[in-house]
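lol ok so funny story. i was supposed to be doing the assay writeup but got distracted and ended up predicting the structure for this chain instead. priorities right. anyway since i did it might as well share w the group, maybe its usefull for someone
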Amino acid sequence: MAVIEELIRKEDDGSISFGNYLMDEKKKVLDFEVQGDLYKVKTFKEITKLEKNGKMLLEAVPGATVLNFVQDERGVSFLVEAEEDVQLTLELEAETEYKILVDDVNVGKMKTNMTGKVTFSVEIQKNATPVKIEKIG
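and the output, tada:
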């Protein structure tokens, strides 16, 4: 398992990786800059949260490690690792329909609420589980 010892880092491909679900105490990193945006991460075994410019992007309960997180106008993709199944909440575009793929399997469509939040669960496997959320239309 590949927790992020430094809590958040920029990868060579421009994505970010963050979170350490093995920690007993909550730790955070503030104002981590990537391409002019400021990220904040809070993480430990019970919860992992990522914010961008003061706005929530992702929350994982219990805590998780998220690898190669990329967000663009079409959606979000990343790998997730944890000790047990996790519930993910992402803040996306408000009142928009998305297709959710977990381990390349379409688990359904969801429409975000007026705040743009979508919540779903991921069954954790031995390796990092790929997640992709694609905007429909």
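The chain has one domain: 8-135. The first strand starts at residue 8 and ends at 10.
back to the writeup now i swear
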